[in-house]
Amino acid sequence: MQVLVDTNIWSLALRRHRNRTSEAETERVAMLRSLIQDGRARLIGPIRQELLSGIRESGQFERLRAQLRAFSDEALSMADYEKAAHLSNECRRRGLAGSGVDFLICAVAMAREWRIFTSDSDFRSYAKVVPLQFHSSSTSDNFD
Question: Can you tell me the distance from the alpha carbon of 21 to that of 115, in angstroms, rounded to the nearest whole number?
C-alpha cells in the first residue's frame, strides 16, 4: 500500500540534525527510508511547498530542493480540492479546525486508499470524523 508522507516526517528526515532526534523520531526516519526503498512513499505539491518554505539560507534551500526532486508530486485534481473542502466543513461542524493542507492530505489519501504517515496528532482527531488509515509502528503510533 502506498503511503502519503506528511510534512513533519519529511522535515524530520531532511532538515533536522541527527543528534537532536529522540528514539521515536529516529524510528520514524528509518520507516521513511524503508518506504522510499520500497517505492511506497508519496508526496504532493503542497507538502513540497511547506518543506521548502521558511528556509533562510539559499544554499540550504537548493540542497533540500535537490533532495526532494527525487520524488515526483502526485497529480491533484479538482475533485481532490473539493473533497478537502468537504472534509474541512465536516470537521468544523464537529468543532475540529485544521489547515487546508491537512485536509488535502486526508482527501488524497482517502481517494487513493493510501495510508498517512504523520506524527501530527490533529490527524487522529480528524479520523474521528473521516475514515483515515495511518502508516504506523510501535512508536510512530505515539503522535507528538
Answer: 24
